[in-house]
Structures are given as structure tokens and as C-alpha cells.
Amino acid sequence: MAVKISPLSPKKIQELPLLSGVRIATAEAGIKYKGRTDLLFIVFDEPANVAGVFTRSKCRSSAVDHCRESLLYGVARGLVVNSGNANAFTGYKGKQTTNAIVRSASSVLKARENEIFIASTGVIGEPMDEACILNLLPDMASKAKEGCWLEAAKAIMTTDTFPKLATRQFDFGESLLLLMELQKALV
After folding, report:
1. What is the DSSP string of 43-68?
2. Could you say which of 51, 132, 154, 156 is the most buried, measured as most Cβ atoms within 10 Å of its Cβ?
3. Can you tell me the distance from the alpha carbon of 17 to that of 2, in angstroms, rounded to the nearest whole number?
4. Contact partners, residue 52, CB within 8 Å, separation at least 6
């Protein structure tokens, strides 16, 4: 069954500029569906300053807990995002999955575990087999390249009907600030 594109979809998807030192790789991990891009790995060649806003839910996932704790250190070297399975409401198994993915990504990037951020979107309450992610991360890191923003936005889609990207430039004192966004939302 073909998915009907939302009437709110833009006529043209905005192109995001290259961002030096930010490399992107996507893959088909088969997390929920075969033949669908569902894994995103963003590599920061140098430690990147990070900020975050998190849910206030008492039932948050282990990925949210990991990111909240890692944010205290202020920098990121990698971001792993999967779609198809939220790895939430999965108890101790979910925490093991998060830890395994973080350990693998930190090993691949030769970074500290608190420099790896992780997010998952998709089905809630279903344990995830992390092997499909762990097996792909080394190859993804070596093949990551700058400017693959559209592929990145597509990799984090679940029930979305179109990829969401945006960019804006602002004068910030004596500097020009470039804001770029990938968004995961239902429209």
C-alpha cells in the first residue's frame, strides 16, 4: 500500500549545506523492515559542542538517560539514530542494548562513551536486537561523508510521509550562525 504524502509537505525539500567535519552514513539494518534505510551514524571529526532538551517522562528510555548524563560533558564525537524500534519500555534489556551500541560506536570512533549520543524511534515495548546495528557501525564510520543530509532525514523516518530538513543563518554579534535541523515528527 502506497503512503499518501501529507498535504503539509513542502513543494521542494530544502538542501542543507556541507558542514566541514560532520560526516554522515546511513544503512539498511533491518530493524523493523527489510529494504528500508533505518540507521544513521553521524561522525564529528572533532569534538562538537552539544546541547539537549529531554522529555520529563518518568518512563524515559535508556537512550534518553544516557544522553542526559553525557550532556554534562558537553561534547559529542558521534550520534547513532535508528528507526523502527524505540528501545523504550524494554527494561534491563533496553539498557543493555543502549550500552552495547554506545560501546561499539565509541570504540569505532576511538572516543569516550560520554561522547556518543544515541536516539531510537519506532515501536515501543519491543526488545531490539542490537547485533544488526553493531555489525554496521565500523563500515558506516569509514564510509561516512559530508553533506548527506537528505539521506540522514530519510533514515529517521517511521510513519513520516516526507523527510524534514531546515537551515537558517543568523547574525550573532560579529559572527554568522548557521542553524541546521533534521526533524523527526508526524505530519
Report:
1. EEEEEEE--------TT--HHHHHHH
2. 156
3. 31
4. 67, 68, 71
DSSP-derived pairing of the beta strands 39-49 and 22-27: antiparallel
Q: Is 129 part of any domain? A: yes
Residue 79 in domain: yes
In angstroms, rounded to a whole number, what is the distance separating the alpha carbons of residues 164 and 141? Answer: 23
Distance CA 121, CA 135 (A): 20
Q: What residues form DSSP beta bridges with 48? A: 76
CA distance 166 to 183: 8
Is 10 within the bounds of a domain? no
| Packing angle of the helix pair 62-71, 91-109 (nearest 10 deg) | 50
pTM of the model: 0.88
Closest CA to 26 of 101, 116, 137, 104: 137
Q: How many domains does the chain have?
A: 1
Mind listing the pLDDT tens digit for each residue in 26-76? 999 999 988 889 999 999 999 999 998 888 988 899 999 999 999 999 999
**What CATH number should be reported for the domain holding residue 147?**
3.60.70.12
- Residues of the domain holding 43: 22-51+58-158
Q: In this structure, are residues 73 and 114 in contact, taking their beta carbons and an 8 Å threshold?
A: yes
Nine-digit cell at 101? 551500541
